[in-house]
Write a structure and sequence with these properties.
Immunoglobulin-like; Purple Acid Phosphatase, chain A, domain 2; 8 helices; alpha+beta; seven-stranded mixed beta sheet; binds fe (ii) ion; 2 domains; about 20% helix
């Protein structure tokens, strides 16, 4: 007697052998769902965290994305998935079935393994009689492989009210192997009338609220297309929880124990909406986000979480907003922006990396940004300069090959060099990639900042866009890609500036 599960498998195999589109019609009684009348795939598909033999496939069933439950009944729902070597999904590499459960907002995170290294794949999900869009992804090369090139697009800061996402249409056309998203995927602020579109509802404070917020952001078709075009590796900044939060400290000085409840809800919603591995599944208010990616011998990317593990803001008593004069606490070497465990992990990675290029993907501007006073922001690296110095020292001491920093957060394109002391040698270069839509500082303010910080070689806060990095053995070429206007969904793009870092040399040059 062929049981329903076995029969279903046979049907799937038959469909695959027949080479037809794989839309399962038979459902097992144990998992029977009311067929979904509305398309459950309105938030699109995504993939992420590639390895040499696999990748994470993501979707979330949400026929009504702006409902806290996504429009799903509380019961589990069966989701079939397939990954293939061709876009028509005929040369199937793997397939399976997973359950989307209410506890995870009916999101699914399929960790596919057994794929071939350094290859493009296509994937699709099926549920309730509907098929998702087809996504395109790829695996990483084998760790020891000689890899000629890698193209990375990196972006951050996509405030929904501030603009549309024409940047993503161009990012897709640029055909990156990998997309890095460096934080501020959502903004938590209340709905306002100030932008081109409105946040749904009030500031999220609980899981239901954050789910609705992601439902709005992820409904954007250009964002969905970018997720469907390449694997992403994501890290967060502050707005995925609350502006300028750090550790258990809210910007509003809420009781830390209470703020951690909000952080837990925000982290859970983040996990539910990102193509992350199970290792990142939050446990209460804790979530493992920092990690590294190896791309053959060509590159290693270390991705940092500088929000969750940091101690409280420094010199707060002297602060005017978040700008502070110098104080002993700011220079306290025991204060780590990364927290002791993550910092130890990073030091270990930097000591052992085999990457020809070592990209440090993190949230914000890493170089010093002192403003006349002198004053520093206590929200970023300038609030924790000992951590920055230890990383620079480790790059030098461990003779890390070709370190380059990528950042976001400040809604401004910045290119600069990093030094331990102003008169000393350049140790690394950094490229902060503007913002997808969030409004930045004026170029007059940027010019003032650059005049006090000559290591910041380029700055433009008045345009929106992303960074494009082309790595070969010889060069790390970075282009700042700027859209004409993010106030409209379709907008032309231009190269705002282009730089190159050459193998074995320190310091960026105009390209
Ligand atoms: Fe931002």
């Amino acid at each position: 007697m062929v049981g329903p599960l076995a029969r279903r498998r046979l049907l799937l195999q038959a469909a695959a052998i027949a080479g037809g589109a794989l839309v399962p019609q038979a459902w097992t009684p144990a998992l029977a769902q009311a067929r979904l009348g509305e398309d459950p795939f309105q938030l699109g598909v995504a993939s992420g965290d590639p390895t040499a033999d696999g990748v994470v496939l993501w979707t979330r069933l949400a026929p009504r994305p702006l409902s806290p439950d996504g429009g799903m009944a509380p019961a589990p729902a069966a989701v079939d998935w397939v990954i293939a070597e061709d876009e028509a999904l005929t040369r199937v590499a793997a397939r399976g079935q997973t359950l989307a459960v209410a506890e995870a907002g009916h999101s699914v995170h399929v960790e596919v393994s057994g794929l071939r290294p350094d290859r493009v794949y296509f994937y699709r999900f099926y549920a309730g009689g509907h098929a998702s869009p087809t996504g395109r992804t790829r695996t990483a090369p084998l760790a020891g492989a000689d890899v000629a090139r890698l193209r990375i697009a990196y972006g951050s800061c996509q405030k929904y009210e501030a603009g549309y996402y024409p940047a993503y249409a161009h990012m897709v056309a640029d055909a990156p192997d990998l997309v890095l998203f460096l934080g501020d995927y959502i903004y938590e602020g209340d709905a306002t009338d100030k932008g081109v579109r409105r946040h749904p509802g009030p500031e999220p404070m609980d899981l239901a609220g954050y789910r609705v917020r992601y439902g709005a952001y992820k409904s954007d078709p250009q964002l969905q297309a970018a997720h469907a075009a390449a694997p992403w590796m994501v890290i967060w900044d502050d707005h995925e929880v609350e502006n300028d939060y750090g550790g258990d400290q809210s910007q509003d000085d809420v009781d830390p124990a209470l703020f951690l409840r909000r952080r837990a809800a925000a982290y859970q919603a983040y996990y539910e909406h990102m193509p992350l591995r199970r290792a990142a599944l939050p446990v209460g208010p804790q979530m493992q986000l920092y990690r590294a990616l190896t791309w053959g011998r060509l590159a290693e990317i270390q991705l940092l979480d500088d929000r969750q593990h940091r101690p409280h803001r420094t010199c707060q008593a002297q602060a005017n907003g978040k700008l502070i004069p110098d104080c002993d606490e700011r220079r306290d070497p025991t204060r780590s922006l990364l927290g002791p465990e993550q910092e130890a992990w990073l030091m270990e990675r930097l000591a052992s990396t085999q990457g020809h290029w070592n990209l440090l993907a993190q949230q914000t501007l890493m170089g010093e940004g002192v403003i006349p006073g002198p004053l520093w922001s206590n929200d970023g690296w300038d609030g924790y300069p000992a951590t920055r110095n230890r990383i620079l020292e480790q790059w030098r001491r461990a003779q890390v090959s070709n370190p380059v920093v990528l950042g976001g957060d400040i809604h401004t394109f910045v290119a600069g060099d990093l030094k331990l002391d102003p008169e000393g040698p350049v140790i690394a270069s950094e490229f902060v990639g503007g913002s997808i839509s969030s409004l930045g500082r004026s170029n007059a303010a940027m010019a003032l900042l650059q005049s006090a910080n000559p290591h910041l070689k380029f700055g433009d806060g008045e345009v929106r866009g992303y960074g494009l990095v082309d790595l070969t053995r010889e060069t790390c070429a970075v282009r700042f890609r700027a859209v004409e206007s993010a106030l409209v969904p379709q907008s032309p793009i231009r190269n705002l500036a282009a730089f190159v870092v050459e193998d074995g040399e320190r310091g960026l040059k105009p390209a």
